[in-house]
Amino acid sequence: MSSAPTGSQTRTDSHASRVMWISTTAFTLMFAVWLMFGILGKPIQEEFGLTDTQLSWIAAVAVLNGSIWRLPAGMITDRIGGRKMMTAILAVSAVPAFLVSQAQSYGMLLVLAFLVGFAGNSFSVGIAWNAAWTPRERQGFALGLFGAGNVGASVTKFIGPPIIAATAGSTVILGLQGGWRLIPVVYAVLLLVMAAITWFGTPSQDQMPGSSRTIGQMMTPLRQVRVWRFSLYYVAVFGAYVALAAWMPIYYINNFGVSLTTAGLLTAVFIFPASLLRPVGGWFTDRWGARKAMYGTFVVMLITSGILMMPNGHIVIDHADGRATEHLGYAMHIVPFTILLFLLGCAMGVGKAAVFKHIPEYFPDNVGPVGGLVGMLGGLGGFFLPPLFAYTEEWSGFPTSTFFVLFLLTAVCLLWMHLTVVRMLHEQSPQLSDKLEPSDGQQHLDRTFSGTPDQTDSRLQEAQR
Q: Which of 164, 195, 323, 433 is the most exposed place for a label (fewest CB within 10 A)?
């Protein structure tokens, strides 16, 4: 019979729940701010007369600044607490967000977009903050729910166009200009309101697992190859998500001839599952383990990207008599394309949760720095992949080469993970390495390797006894 929870435990659970929900709301807002130039870009381009290349750099510098500080942000969170860090990022990001509405030149827009991008570093803050408060058996769900704030990528796509259309060419309250310039003002106000909610709504006595650790001690785990392997996984499931979220509207317009509004809505079919399924992925990893979730993620990503990368066309056979005949014509239509893109988003949503389930299991005392590095490299993937998509399309002549890049990246991740698992099984239990069917021993082995390295060693000793 289980004992009733103590008052202290109930209070701790309540605090953890408040941290989870408030941090998730804050992250959703800041993710929307981080990627708001995806929708504001078109009216900005028209007003300033920018080329497509100039416009692309506005969004790119925001993504860059939202990634490069994730490692120090996670480390500082472990040292001083998530409440202070999350509140600070919300308040600081409100300043450049408001100033975007006052920009009068392309150069100023670039500087302000870079500064606004700082909001993206809230991810590693929230991961470290939630991991510090949440018991290990519920961390998968908590971190998955927090990560679902990625859905903020769609917020501006829905609220931006109506506000821009309704206020274009007019002056609203306090002399502020309408149209696209009103969006960053709205976000600046919401950031300040959210900063107040975060400061007054979360526990004042925060968890600070790294408060007694030196910078050198916190950086030590980053020397492990495992951390860099997790980072590559996150480039595939998060960096590619950010890149595709920005790339797909253009892809739909260029390849299927749809309007910008339709392209945005169809892209949301990919964005929503890739974001909202993170809690489901977290629950799955809590119940069955992160390794199984990662295998499923990469297999689905390989299948969907493998189909999507097939170019439209046909085989032409030149006959001896000079005739040319066409055979095996193939074309991907918009409906099956969108269905496959939806499934790809589902896999990414589960995979993002699975990657971050690994971190508190292997590095329970260093979630901030490890999660910060993984998040930083994943975010940088979102910065580098769109140019790579463009260059491969230019080189190959095939728009579907976008998914060939993703297919290769996923294949490398799956191969590295599988070789690591096989090597680990062979070294620790060579008598089971040649078994193809699951057995009682294999099931026990899965349980043996489901925890941290210390727990694994303990379970192996029990198995040997």
A: 323
